[in-house]
Amino acid sequence: MTSVSTSATHAVPDTAGRPVLTVAVLCFGGMITSLTQTFVIPLQGELPVLLSTSAANASWVVTATLLAGAVAMPIAGSLGDLFGKQRVLLVSTLILLVGSLVCALSDTLLPMLAGRTLQGLSMGFVPVGISLIRDVVPPGRTGTAMAAVSATLGVGGSIGLPLAAWIADSYDFHALFWFSTVLAVLAALPVALLIPRVPAARRARLDLVGALGIAVGLVAVLVAVTKGREWGWDTARPWSFLVVGLVVLVAWGRYELAHPAPLCDLRVTARRPVLLTNIAAVAIGFGMMAQAIIVPQLLQLPELTGHGLGQSMVAAGLWTAPAGLVMMAFAPLSSALIARYGPRVTLAVGAAVLGSGYLVAVAIHGAPWHLLVVSCVTSAGVGIGYAAMPALIMDAVPASDSGAAVGVNALMRSIGTTTAAALVASILAASVTDVHGFPVPSEDAMVVGFLIGAGAAFLGMALTLAIPRRAAAAA
Description:
Layout: H1 19-37, H2 47-50, H3 55-58, H4 60-83, H5 85-104, H6 109-121, H7 125-136, H8 142-170, H9 174-194, H10 208-231, H11 236-258, H12 266-269, H13 272-300, H14 313-329, H15 331-341, H16 343-363, H17 368-394, H18 402-430, E1 432-435, E2 438-441, H19 443-465, H20 469-474
Antiparallel strand pairs: 1-2
Helix pairs in contact: 1-7, 1-8, 1-9, 4-5, 4-6, 4-7, 4-10, 4-18, 5-6, 5-7, 5-9, 7-8, 7-18, 8-14, 8-15, 8-17, 10-11, 10-18, 13-14, 13-16, 13-17, 13-18, 13-19, 14-17, 15-16, 15-17, 16-17, 16-19, 17-18, 18-19
């Protein structure tokens, strides 16, 4: 994001007749990129054998994608502002294609890590696609379009788990990545042929030092967060990564403030509506991930534990899959709320629904249909909130900075989900019961996880309500 920009660029003539088609392509691309991020989760226990490596090394197959996605989102957003959003969208799908192909041909750890890193980098598609909506969709329909594209993240993640479990159970694990290769081709072709080529929003050189700085700082911090429990917080290793990452990010911030055309305009980011929306994104992202960790475990734990529901991996995925569809179904409601009450109130409502879903989980979680209800309620809250966030952000920043601003907001959500994954996993690991010699998370630990998720969601609601009404009214 930069304050040094050209005038705002909006829809070009050839987009006027096809905004619905453009949004459909963006929705499909967003769904495919998010779907491939969850593909290896059903394989986590088997990866050490499949890749002939240790469990610690195999865990990087998941972590690499997470780190790459976090880095890609703000950088891709800025690239879209500089070089045109259609180009960045196409490059993102091609990166996904190459990454999927590398994984499909891999039998050992290093090429698999390379492929999964490339798949993670494709997540830059999402913020760029959301920011493109402002340029190609008529003003009265942007809320619905943003809600639809935002919802595809949940749809992809929810469908990806049972689909990957079924493919992995029925075929060789390489089939997962051959399938994602085909999906990447199907995503790239309409992006190349149907997405309008809107001129770049601003003209400046890419801030390479800024891109490198944010990449190094974010990776170091997120490695510490994701690997801290595995390495042990009582050792120097995670703290070293954390300190180095924070020092790099502070130096990066000072550099960006002095740069005439920075990768991220921190002065714009510090505006109260943008800052509070981004902090709320961390809290709501945290709330979203807590149930995504606990619910599948509750479903799959053996019934003899007293609180497990004894579902197979495929069945557990099918119980949670409707949540993604609920998220998509709530896109029109999100748009209506934004149009009637504004994005500030809509985001607060979404956070409140998310928190209420966790309170339901505390009360009832003893049957699969209970957790289906919980997943659907929390996903409805996420869908409503995720649709409102980009609306708040883009209405508070110049059009020339919309891609980078939405990318930073997506990064904040990612930080929230990453932190939640680490904290909830630590809570579950710290309170276990012994079942025939095997430690499993206790029911009390899972209830604590639900309560923490509720607290994060209601904190996000409070932060949203702190956004000035005047700024929200202007939006």
